[in-house]
Design goal:
The chain has helices at residues 5-14, 72-77, 223-230; strands at residues 33-43, 46-57, 61-70, 81-90, 95-106, 109-118, 121-128, 157-158, 173-178, 183-198, 201-216, 232-239, 245-254, 259-268. 40% of the residues are buried. The chain is built from three helices and 14 strands. The protein has one domain. The chain is globular, with a radius of gyration of 18 Å. Strands 1, 2, 3, 4, 5, 6, 7, 8, 9, 10, 11, 12, 13 and 14 form a 14-stranded antiparallel sheet that branches. The protein is mainly beta. 9% of the residues lie in helices and 50% in strands. InterPro entries: DUF3108. Residues 1-29 form the signal peptide. Keywords: Signal. It holds the Pfam family DUF3108.
């Protein structure tokens, strides 16, 4: 199974919720508010996880938190949960992250990673426990840590220009991502505009294809990495009301073992009071 590709895409694209306040229009970039979403993750039609994301912006800075946990049949084999938080400042066209923290809890053990950044460049990485890289892993060099995003901040989607928000401009991009140990790119390309009904949103959505490209920190002999490079995922983006920002409503990836899906069960896209939260059962 492509165990790394799917979580990487899920983390980066679900994090598009940080896009509130980071639009292509400078006046719109001063908009403050909150967006949030609940997601259900399944594999072969079986529930394996749940996640909730909340992003708050004052128009100049942002703070996004993602809480996730293993559920359903997957919890029988490997229970666990995790929390990730990203902070940074907003420019008219992109996020500029300043910190990324993630804590993973499983089997009574806790692993943490903290990344400090300045102007798109990594300035410090702290891991606990700090396991050495595999001797066959390609080294992460200083140039790999320049002009990058953390996995959450990488998910800001802004439709540039003045064309349709759910058109090609929503997708066309290459995100350079560092998560604390591995450097990879996600390459997004436009597929089509589609009518959807997901998580309480009904209307037009942009459909993107996503490809994974490992850069550094990987063992080149790993089958899952090579399989990930040959496959692509699909991401459905829906617009935040009154802006040129979009957030992911559905992410799907076909593997040699089946299809994994992360889909919104609730989307709060306009900063209004949250609707009744979908049941986690």
């Amino acid at each position: 199974m492509t165990v790394r590709f799917y979580p990487a895409i899920a983390a980066a694209t679900l994090a598009a919720l940080t896009g509130l306040g980071a639009g292509a229009n400078p006046a719109r970039a001063q908009t403050a508010g909150q967006v949030s979403a609940d997601y259900a993750v399944s594999f072969l039609g079986l529930s394996i996880g749940r996640g909730t994301m909340v992003s708050i912006s004052d128009g100049r800075t942002y703070r996004t938190t993602l809480d996730a946990r293993v559920t359903g049949v997957a919890a029988v084999f490997a229970g666990g949960s995790g929390t990730a938080t990203a902070t940074g400042r907003l420019t008219p066209n992109a996020a500029v992250p300043s910190s990324f923290d993630i804590e993973i809890r499983s089997g009574g053990k806790v692993e943490t990673t903290r990344i400090a950044m300045n102007g798109g460049n990594v300035t410090a990485v702290e891991r606990n426990p700090d396991k050495p890289p595999h001797p066959r892993a390609t080294p992460v060099l200083p140039e790999h840590l320049q002009g990058v995003l953390d996995p959450l901040s990488a998910g800001i989607f802004v439709a540039g220009g003045s064309g349709p928000v759910t058109g090609a401009a929503a997708c066309e991009r290459r995100a350079r991502i560092f998560g604390g140990r591995e450097r990879f790119d996600l390459i997004f390309s436009f597929v089509e505009t589609r009518q959807v009904d997901i998580g309480g949103y009904k209307g037009e959505a942009a459909v993107c294809r996503v490809r994974f490209e490992p850069i550094a920190g990987y063992r080149p002999d790993r089958n899952d990495i090579q399989n990930a490079r040959r496959r692509s995922a699909e991401v459905i983006l829906v617009p935040v009301r009154g802006t040129r920002h979009l957030v992911p409503a559905r992410i799907s990836l076909s593997t040699g073992y089946g299809t994994g899906v992360a889909e919104a069960t609730r989307l709060a896209l306009d900063g209004a009071p949250q609707a009744r939260r979908a049941s986690a059962d």
